[in-house]
Write a structure and sequence with these properties.
alpha/beta; 14% strand; 43% helix; five-stranded mixed beta sheet
C-alpha cells in the first residue's frame, strides 16, 4: 500500500548514548523520506556524540567510541539535516516519547531553531500497542511475517517501522490512510513541550504537569511565582521545555 501523503513523511530512528533526553546524545540516525508520489530516499549516518558511549548502550546497538571518533558532530550536520526534513511530517517507533524529544534537544543544542511543533507525528508503536500490545520485532513478525534481522541498528529499525505502518493500514480498516488521522491516533498525550512538563487542559490552555503546581495554568504560575521561571531555566530540564516556557512568558508580556 502506498501512503496517502500531503507532505513528505520521514520515518527515522536514533541510536544513542542512553535514554536521558537532557544528557544523552545521538550516535547514529537513519531515515526514509517518503514523498507523496511514493518516491523513497534513505540515508544513514553516524555521529560523534562528543561523550563516551556507555558499554550498556554499545551492547544494544553495537556502536563504539572507536566507530564514531572520526564522524561529524551533530552540530556539524544539524543545518543540512534540518534542510532535509524541512516541510516533512515525522514517523517512528516510540518516537513521540523518545526520538522526537531527543532530536529537538540536539537541534537546540546545535543552535538550529527548527519548529518541530508544526509537524504531524505518527508513532507506529502507539498504533501497534493500541491494536496488539507487542514489541518491534514481534510487530514486524506479526504484520510483515518476517524476522527482523539486525534489530537495534538504526537502518533496520527504520525500514521495519516503515513496512509495519503500511501493513497496519492494510490490516485495519478503521485506520485512515491520512497523516492527520494517524498523527492523532498515535498520540497518547496532549503535551505542550515534548517532555510533557506542560500539557493542554480541556480548554486548550497550558498547565503545569508536575510538582507542586501540577494542574495550574502556566501563565498564572509565572505571574504569582516569578522565581519559578528562573528555577526552570537554571534547572536540569530539556531545552525544548525552557524554550516553550519562555515563549509563554513573552506572550504574557506582549499581551499587556
Amino acid at each position: 500500500m502506498q501512503l496517502n501523503l500531503k507532505n513528505p513523511l520521514v520515518f527515522f530512528d536514533l541510536e544513542t548514548t542512553g535514554i536521558n533526553i537532557v544528557k544523552d546524545r545521538i550516535v547514529e540516525i537513519s531515515f526514509v523520506k517518503v514523498h507523496p508520489n511514493g518516491k523513497e530516499e534513505t540515508k544513514t549516518r553516524r555521529i560523534n556524540p562528543e561523550m563516551p558511549i556507555p558499554p550498556e548502550s554499545t551492547a544494544i546497538h553495537g556502536i563504539t567510541d572507536e566507530d564514531v571518533k572520526d564522524c561529524p558532530t551533530f552540530k556539524e550536520i544539524a543545518k543540512s539535516l534540518a534542510a532535509q526534513i524541512e516541510g516533512c511530517d515525522l514517523a517512528g517507533y516510540n518516537s513521540n516519547r523518545f526520538d522526537i524529544p531527543l532530536l529537538a534537544e540536539e537541534f537546540l543544542r546545535a543552535g538550529v531553531d527548527i519548529d518541530l511543533n508544526k509537524r504531524k507525528f505518527v508513532d507506529v508503536q502507539t498504533i501497534f500497542h493500541k491494536m496488539e500490545q507487542r514489541t518491534l520485532s514481534a510487530a514486524y513478525k506479526f504484520y510483515c511475517d518476517k524476522s527482523l534481522e539486525n534489530a537495534h541498528t538504526a537502518e533496520a529499525d527504520t525500514m521495519a517501522t516503515y513496512e509495519i505502518l503500511k501493513a497496519q493500514l492494510d490490516r485495519y480498516s478503521e485506520l485512515q490512510n491520512d497523516i492527520d488521522f494517524l498523527s492523532k491516533y498515535s498520540s497518547f498525550t496532549n503535551n505542550v513541550d515534548f517532555a510533557g512538563r506542560m500539557i493542554y487542559n480541556e480548554e486548550g490552555k497550558e498547565v503545569i504537569n508536575f510538582g507542586k503546581y501540577k494542574g495550574k495554568l502556566v501563565e498564572e504560575v509565572l505571574k504569582t511565582d516569578p522565581g519559578y521561571y528562573s528555577w526552570i531555566m537554571n534547572g536540569d530540564f530539556p531545552l525544548n521545555t525552557k524554550k516553550i516556557l519562555t515563549e509563554i512568558k513573552l506572550r504574557g508580556f506582549n499581551s499587556k
